[in-house]
Design brief:
Elements (H helix, E strand, L loop, with lengths): L2 H26 L9 H4 L11 H13 L2 H9 L4 H28 L6 H8 L2 H30 L10 H26 L4 H21 L6 H15 L8 H26 L12 E2 L2 E2 H9 L6 H9 L11 H24 L5 H4 L5 H14 L5 H35 L8 H6 L2 H16 L3 H29 L5 H30 L5 H28 L15
Antiparallel strand pairs: 1-2
Helix pairs in contact: 1-5, 1-14, 3-11, 3-14, 3-17, 4-12, 4-14, 4-16, 5-13, 5-14, 5-20, 6-7, 6-20, 7-10, 7-17, 7-19, 7-20, 7-22, 8-9, 8-11, 8-17, 9-11, 10-17, 10-19, 11-14, 11-16, 11-17, 12-20, 12-21, 13-20, 16-17, 17-19, 20-21, 20-22, 21-22
Length: 562
């Protein structure tokens, strides 16, 4: 087997799914380009901001991709390339992309509100309260894992004290991108230029930032970068979306798509041999293929976090309902393609070759493989390696921007009341600054554990969130008299997978305490695991009970654009 064959199969399958299954879903759920969207109906220039499809696509894709579709498949490759590939394709098409689409669709049809609002309206207030706690805990796990990954890609000093030029250049360029995003945000909001002019400006800023960053690396240790990342996201989570989130995602989307195109071209020109076995074993280092293959791949096939982005930020920027298919379903399929590329990347190395080359983290393995592919046509390995590392960090940082905002909003929404005279405690907990500090403080402590240790719990929680999102959307669709059978198999499959994985992860953490491995990070993981499992059981039960009950309401009639 070779990389080109796997790539061609994946492109045909994923592309065909978009035009066949995706279009069928669009028709089945009666998507209507004449309906006024929440972005116009509730426009406030903070969260509800109408944007072109390419801008929202950039935000959606950059936010959902993160480092997940690269880290997950590379770690899951220990079971062999065939089961990983099958789950990426099947899961991406029928599970992940469907969840992303139905979450955005349900949100747009419900005033651009979050999954939490949909749960409250169609399942009940108790379900919403439980979900908000679950969502907040899960977001803390995401922030901790991705912040650690970003800090690792910025770490310019090795354990032996030597400088790492590639990481230093990535760090400088990323800092420049933050400044450029703010500049671009003011241009997009105030100048109202043609979209092609905006594109030209974004590309010029992107190229200029990369050029300056590569020439001026910054060498700072990983611990310092940990602190910086948390300071950055604490700011990003409270400023208006047009000022940083939207332009940063728009800017990075070009880099991220360029990275994927470069990787695809690299696979075709190098045609790497797949050195990894098609299947290794059902049990590797104490982890069973079921359920850990599925929760380890995570974002490359299905991710509950995507529902938070689809319903939390992207749905408030959709100008036309027809944009939902490419923005949500299309973004997920592109992410699945990235996961396939990551699989080909790790499979191209012979056993032990990546480690011997100094490639330790999954992002380094991915960057090293793509650099190897493109160096075969004469492109400089060092520059390609740096650019791919930059793109991976851009993925993770844009995800952090979104997930930190979602976590902050979940915290505030949990304590919010409809009473006019709020208590001092309620006022404090609904304050966005306090909510941000409370969220990021816990995430910072957990980040010290390292992404590798957090990943099993993150993956299981992530998939459980997908169960809850699918259930909430299924209940909404049923009450709106729309077909739901395409959600049933994903719901029950993921219930079995996620609860199995969570129970095993909690058990393994508990056993580790008896071996003396008692740390703050492990204790936090154990507590988080138990809370997430309990909350997941409660919300899932409430959702199933409502889904199999009689309809109680119908979808409201909304205004149309003429």
């Amino acid at each position: 087997m070779n990389g080109v064959t796997l790539m061609i199969i994946s492109i045909i399958v994923l592309g065909g799914a978009y035009f066949i299954y995706g279009k069928w879903l669009e028709k089945t759920w009666q998507v209507n380009n004449a309906r006024i969207t929440p972005a116009y109906e509730f426009e406030d220039n903070v969260d509800y901001v109408p944007a072109d499809a390419n801008i929202v696509f950039g935000h959606q894709f950059a936010s959902i991709a993160g480092a997940g579709p690269i880290n997950g498949p590379i770690q899951a490759a220990m079971f062999g390339w065939l089961p990983v590939l099958l789950w990426i394709l099947v899961g991406g098409i029928f599970f992940g992309a469907v969840q992303d689409y139905v979450s955005m669709y349900s949100s747009v049809r419900n005033k651009g509100k979050t999954i939490g609002y949909i749960i409250e309206k169609y399942i009940g207030k108790l379900g919403k309260k439980l979900f908000l706690i679950f969502c907040w805990l899960f977001c803390i796990l995401v922030i901790a894992a991705f912040a650690d990954i970003v800090a690792a890609t910025f770490d310019g000093i090795s354990n032996t004290g030597e400088t790492i030029v590639a990481n230093g250049s990535v760090a400088t360029t990323s800092l420049i991108f933050i400044v450029e995003a703010v500049v671009l945000g003011f241009i997009l909001k105030n100048l109202k230029l043609n979209k092609w002019v905006n594109t030209a400006i974004a590309l010029a800023l992107l190229i200029g930032g990369i050029y300056i960053g590569i020439l001026n690396p910054i060498f700072i240790d990983g611990s310092s970068w940990h602190l910086f990342v948390f300071i950055y996201i604490s700011i990003a989570t409270i400023v208006p979306v047009w000022a940083l989130l939207q332009p940063r995602d728009y800017l990075n989307s070009y880099l991220l798509v360029a990275m994927i195109l470069a990787a695809v071209v690299g696979v075709f020109v190098a045609n790497p041999t797949i050195n990894l076995e098609s299947f290794t074993a059902f049990n590797i280092n104490g982890l069973n293929m079921f359920p850990f293959l599925f929760v380890t791949i995570a974002c490359g096939a299905i991710s509950g976090f995507h529902s938070l982005v689809s319903s939390g930020t992207s749905s408030k920027q959709i100008k036309n309902e027809k944009h939902m298919l490419p923005v949500s379903y299309g973004s997920m399929l592109l992410e699945s393609l990235l996961a396939v590329i990551a699989l080909i990347a790790v499979a191209s190395f012979a056993s032990g070759e990546a480690t011997a080359s100094g490639l330790v983290t999954p992002s380094q393995v991915f960057a090293g493989a793509v650099a190897n592919f493109l160096s075969s046509v004469g492109l400089p390995y060092a520059i390609i390696f740096t650019l791919i590392n930059l793109a991976v960090s851009a993925f993770a940082l844009t995800s952090l921007d979104s997930v930190a905002r979602v976590a902050r909003l979940s915290f505030q929404e949990f304590f919010a009341t409809e009473e006019e005279n709020e208590s001092p405690l309620t006022k404090l907990c609904t304050n966005k600054y306090f909510a941000t500090i409370a969220t990021l403080g816990l995430a910072y402590l957990l980040a010290k554990v390292g992404y590798a240790a957090i990943w099993p719990l993150f993956g299981a929680s992530n998939q459980l969130l997908a169960v809850i999102a699918l259930l909430a959307c299924a209940v909404y669709l049923k009450n709106a008299s729309k077909k739901t059978f395409m959600l049933v198999i994903p719901i029950f499959s993921m219930i079995l997978i996620t609860f199995s994985a969570l129970l095993q992860t909690i058990f393994n953490l508990g056993v580790s305490f008896f071996t003396g491995n008692i740390t703050v990070g492990n204790i936090l993981q154990f507590i988080f695991g138990i809370l997430i499992f309990g909350l997941g059981v409660c919300v899932t039960f409430e959702g199933l009970k409502k889904y199999y009950a009689k309809n109680e309401c119908k979808e409201p009639i909304t205004t149309e654009i003429f």
